[in-house]
Design brief:
Helix content: 55-70%
Distance between the termini: 172 Å
Shape: elongated
Oligomer: single chain
Number of strands: 5
Strand content: 15-25%
Largest sheet: 3 strands, antiparallel
Mean pLDDT: 81
Low-confidence stretches: none
Structural class: alpha+beta
Length: 229
Protein backbone atom coordinates (compact mmCIF):
# COMPACT_ATOMS: atom_id res chain seq x y z
CA UNK A 1 0.00 0.00 0.00
CA UNK A 2 1.19 3.47 -0.91
CA UNK A 3 0.47 6.78 0.77
CA UNK A 4 2.87 9.34 -0.65
CA UNK A 5 0.16 11.78 -1.81
CA UNK A 6 -1.48 13.93 0.85
CA UNK A 7 -4.78 15.17 -0.54
CA UNK A 8 -4.97 17.82 2.18
CA UNK A 9 -1.90 19.48 0.67
CA UNK A 10 -2.18 18.54 -3.04
CA UNK A 11 -5.36 19.16 -5.03
CA UNK A 12 -6.75 15.82 -6.11
CA UNK A 13 -9.27 13.07 -5.44
CA UNK A 14 -9.32 9.35 -4.71
CA UNK A 15 -11.51 6.41 -5.71
CA UNK A 16 -11.44 2.85 -4.36
CA UNK A 17 -13.01 -0.34 -5.63
CA UNK A 18 -13.27 -2.92 -2.85
CA UNK A 19 -13.60 -6.68 -3.25
CA UNK A 20 -12.78 -6.72 -6.95
CA UNK A 21 -13.05 -10.31 -8.19
CA UNK A 22 -9.49 -10.61 -9.44
CA UNK A 23 -6.13 -11.13 -7.84
CA UNK A 24 -4.00 -8.19 -6.72
CA UNK A 25 -1.07 -9.38 -8.84
CA UNK A 26 -3.15 -9.16 -12.04
CA UNK A 27 -4.41 -5.68 -11.12
CA UNK A 28 -0.87 -4.44 -10.36
CA UNK A 29 0.30 -5.31 -13.87
CA UNK A 30 -2.28 -2.92 -15.32
CA UNK A 31 -1.77 -0.26 -12.66
CA UNK A 32 1.93 -0.10 -13.53
CA UNK A 33 0.93 1.03 -17.04
CA UNK A 34 -0.83 4.19 -15.88
CA UNK A 35 1.07 5.25 -12.78
CA UNK A 36 2.48 8.83 -13.02
CA UNK A 37 0.98 9.24 -16.49
CA UNK A 38 -1.15 12.02 -17.90
CA UNK A 39 -4.89 11.39 -17.79
CA UNK A 40 -5.32 11.25 -21.58
CA UNK A 41 -2.43 8.81 -21.98
CA UNK A 42 -3.68 6.66 -19.11
CA UNK A 43 -7.12 6.43 -20.71
CA UNK A 44 -5.62 5.42 -24.05
CA UNK A 45 -3.48 2.71 -22.48
CA UNK A 46 -6.41 1.25 -20.57
CA UNK A 47 -8.64 1.39 -23.65
CA UNK A 48 -6.23 -0.68 -25.75
CA UNK A 49 -4.97 -2.98 -23.00
CA UNK A 50 -6.06 -6.58 -23.59
CA UNK A 51 -5.98 -7.69 -19.95
CA UNK A 52 -9.26 -8.23 -18.13
CA UNK A 53 -8.18 -6.05 -15.22
CA UNK A 54 -7.94 -3.02 -17.53
CA UNK A 55 -11.72 -2.58 -17.60
CA UNK A 56 -11.97 -2.55 -13.80
CA UNK A 57 -9.05 -0.14 -13.44
CA UNK A 58 -10.54 2.16 -16.08
CA UNK A 59 -13.80 2.39 -14.12
CA UNK A 60 -11.92 3.23 -10.92
CA UNK A 61 -9.92 5.89 -12.78
CA UNK A 62 -13.07 7.50 -14.19
CA UNK A 63 -14.60 7.50 -10.70
CA UNK A 64 -11.56 9.33 -9.33
CA UNK A 65 -11.75 11.88 -12.16
CA UNK A 66 -15.45 12.43 -11.45
CA UNK A 67 -14.70 13.01 -7.76
CA UNK A 68 -12.03 15.54 -8.69
CA UNK A 69 -14.22 17.48 -11.13
CA UNK A 70 -17.45 17.42 -9.12
CA UNK A 71 -16.23 17.58 -5.53
CA UNK A 72 -12.97 19.50 -5.88
CA UNK A 73 -13.89 21.60 -8.97
CA UNK A 74 -10.69 20.62 -10.79
CA UNK A 75 -10.18 20.66 -14.54
CA UNK A 76 -9.96 17.14 -15.98
CA UNK A 77 -7.36 18.29 -18.53
CA UNK A 78 -4.95 19.20 -15.70
CA UNK A 79 -5.05 15.84 -13.88
CA UNK A 80 -2.64 12.93 -13.84
CA UNK A 81 -2.52 9.55 -12.11
CA UNK A 82 -0.55 10.41 -8.99
CA UNK A 83 -0.84 7.06 -7.25
CA UNK A 84 -2.49 3.69 -7.78
CA UNK A 85 -2.16 0.40 -5.96
CA UNK A 86 -3.95 -2.86 -5.28
CA UNK A 87 -4.27 -4.47 -1.83
CA UNK A 88 -5.14 -8.09 -1.31
CA UNK A 89 -8.69 -8.77 -0.16
CA UNK A 90 -10.33 -11.79 1.44
CA UNK A 91 -9.98 -15.13 -0.30
CA UNK A 92 -13.16 -16.96 -1.25
CA UNK A 93 -12.80 -20.72 -0.69
CA UNK A 94 -14.61 -23.05 -3.05
CA UNK A 95 -14.20 -26.71 -3.94
CA UNK A 96 -14.24 -28.74 -7.11
CA UNK A 97 -15.19 -32.45 -7.36
CA UNK A 98 -12.44 -34.83 -8.44
CA UNK A 99 -12.07 -38.52 -9.08
CA UNK A 100 -12.96 -41.23 -6.52
CA UNK A 101 -15.29 -38.92 -4.62
CA UNK A 102 -12.56 -36.54 -3.62
CA UNK A 103 -12.67 -32.69 -3.75
CA UNK A 104 -10.04 -30.09 -4.52
CA UNK A 105 -10.01 -26.73 -2.85
CA UNK A 106 -10.25 -23.56 -5.01
CA UNK A 107 -9.08 -20.15 -3.81
CA UNK A 108 -10.78 -17.16 -5.46
CA UNK A 109 -8.67 -14.06 -4.89
CA UNK A 110 -10.10 -10.56 -4.35
CA UNK A 111 -8.39 -7.19 -4.10
CA UNK A 112 -8.99 -3.54 -3.28
CA UNK A 113 -7.97 -1.15 -6.09
CA UNK A 114 -7.21 2.50 -5.25
CA UNK A 115 -6.49 5.28 -7.75
CA UNK A 116 -5.52 8.86 -6.84
CA UNK A 117 -5.55 11.65 -9.39
CA UNK A 118 -3.91 15.01 -8.68
CA UNK A 119 -3.49 18.33 -10.41
CA UNK A 120 -0.33 18.97 -12.36
CA UNK A 121 2.05 21.63 -11.06
CA UNK A 122 2.18 25.01 -12.83
CA UNK A 123 5.62 24.18 -14.28
CA UNK A 124 4.37 20.91 -15.74
CA UNK A 125 1.29 22.64 -17.16
CA UNK A 126 3.47 25.24 -18.87
CA UNK A 127 5.73 22.56 -20.30
CA UNK A 128 2.76 20.60 -21.62
CA UNK A 129 1.20 23.71 -23.21
CA UNK A 130 4.54 24.49 -24.87
CA UNK A 131 4.77 20.95 -26.26
CA UNK A 132 1.20 21.09 -27.54
CA UNK A 133 1.74 24.51 -29.11
CA UNK A 134 4.87 23.24 -30.84
CA UNK A 135 3.01 20.19 -32.18
CA UNK A 136 0.01 22.25 -33.25
CA UNK A 137 -2.49 20.32 -31.12
CA UNK A 138 -4.82 21.68 -28.46
CA UNK A 139 -6.30 20.51 -25.20
CA UNK A 140 -9.70 18.90 -24.89
CA UNK A 141 -11.11 22.03 -23.22
CA UNK A 142 -9.83 24.28 -26.02
CA UNK A 143 -11.20 21.89 -28.67
CA UNK A 144 -14.54 21.79 -26.87
CA UNK A 145 -14.66 25.60 -26.67
CA UNK A 146 -13.87 25.84 -30.39
CA UNK A 147 -16.65 23.38 -31.20
CA UNK A 148 -19.13 25.32 -29.05
CA UNK A 149 -18.18 28.61 -30.72
CA UNK A 150 -18.53 27.08 -34.18
CA UNK A 151 -21.91 25.60 -33.25
CA UNK A 152 -23.14 28.96 -31.94
CA UNK A 153 -21.95 30.69 -35.12
CA UNK A 154 -23.77 28.12 -37.26
CA UNK A 155 -26.92 28.59 -35.16
CA UNK A 156 -26.77 32.38 -35.55
CA UNK A 157 -26.24 32.12 -39.32
CA UNK A 158 -29.12 29.66 -39.60
CA UNK A 159 -31.35 32.05 -37.63
CA UNK A 160 -30.41 34.95 -39.92
CA UNK A 161 -31.05 32.80 -42.99
CA UNK A 162 -34.43 31.74 -41.62
CA UNK A 163 -35.34 35.40 -40.98
CA UNK A 164 -34.37 36.37 -44.53
CA UNK A 165 -36.33 33.43 -45.89
CA UNK A 166 -39.38 34.47 -43.88
CA UNK A 167 -39.13 38.03 -45.26
CA UNK A 168 -38.82 36.74 -48.82
CA UNK A 169 -41.77 34.41 -48.35
CA UNK A 170 -43.88 37.24 -46.91
CA UNK A 171 -42.99 39.46 -49.88
CA UNK A 172 -43.85 36.64 -52.29
CA UNK A 173 -47.18 36.09 -50.54
CA UNK A 174 -47.95 39.82 -50.75
CA UNK A 175 -47.13 39.84 -54.47
CA UNK A 176 -49.35 36.80 -55.04
CA UNK A 177 -52.17 38.46 -53.12
CA UNK A 178 -51.86 41.66 -55.19
CA UNK A 179 -51.86 39.62 -58.41
CA UNK A 180 -54.95 37.72 -57.29
CA UNK A 181 -56.73 40.99 -56.43
CA UNK A 182 -55.85 42.47 -59.84
CA UNK A 183 -57.11 39.35 -61.62
CA UNK A 184 -60.31 39.41 -59.58
CA UNK A 185 -60.92 43.11 -60.37
CA UNK A 186 -60.28 42.50 -64.07
CA UNK A 187 -62.71 39.57 -64.04
CA UNK A 188 -65.36 41.74 -62.35
CA UNK A 189 -64.90 44.51 -64.92
CA UNK A 190 -65.12 42.00 -67.74
CA UNK A 191 -68.28 40.53 -66.28
CA UNK A 192 -69.86 43.98 -65.86
CA UNK A 193 -69.01 44.86 -69.46
CA UNK A 194 -70.50 41.59 -70.69
CA UNK A 195 -73.68 42.17 -68.68
CA UNK A 196 -74.03 45.69 -70.07
CA UNK A 197 -73.55 44.46 -73.63
CA UNK A 198 -76.13 41.73 -73.06
CA UNK A 199 -78.59 44.30 -71.73
CA UNK A 200 -78.03 46.53 -74.76
CA UNK A 201 -78.54 43.58 -77.09
CA UNK A 202 -81.73 42.53 -75.31
CA UNK A 203 -83.07 46.10 -75.51
CA UNK A 204 -82.33 46.25 -79.23
CA UNK A 205 -84.10 42.95 -79.85
CA UNK A 206 -87.08 44.16 -77.84
CA UNK A 207 -87.28 47.37 -79.89
CA UNK A 208 -87.10 45.42 -83.11
CA UNK A 209 -89.83 43.03 -82.01
CA UNK A 210 -92.18 45.87 -80.96
CA UNK A 211 -91.74 47.60 -84.31
CA UNK A 212 -92.60 44.44 -86.28
CA UNK A 213 -95.79 43.68 -84.34
CA UNK A 214 -97.58 47.10 -84.80
CA UNK A 215 -101.16 46.48 -86.13
CA UNK A 216 -101.87 47.86 -89.61
CA UNK A 217 -104.73 50.40 -90.07
CA UNK A 218 -107.99 48.55 -90.88
CA UNK A 219 -109.55 49.48 -94.21
CA UNK A 220 -113.25 50.29 -94.17
CA UNK A 221 -115.37 47.37 -95.38
CA UNK A 222 -117.51 47.84 -98.43
CA UNK A 223 -121.03 48.85 -97.44
CA UNK A 224 -123.63 46.27 -97.93
CA UNK A 225 -126.12 47.42 -100.68
CA UNK A 226 -129.02 46.53 -98.54
CA UNK A 227 -127.74 48.64 -95.72
CA UNK A 228 -127.31 51.52 -98.09
CA UNK A 229 -130.86 51.15 -99.13
Amino acid sequence: MSGLIDLDVIAGAKATHKYARLSASKARVVLNLVRDEDLALARDRLRFCERGAAEVVAKVLESAVANATNNEQLDADELYVAECWADEGPVLKRWRPRARGRATRIFKQTCHITVIVAQLSPEELEMREARMAASGSQTAAAARAARVAASRADTDSDAEGDAETDVDEAAAHDAVDETDEAIAEEAVDTEVTAVAAAEVEVAAEADAASGAEEPEAAEPDAADPEERT
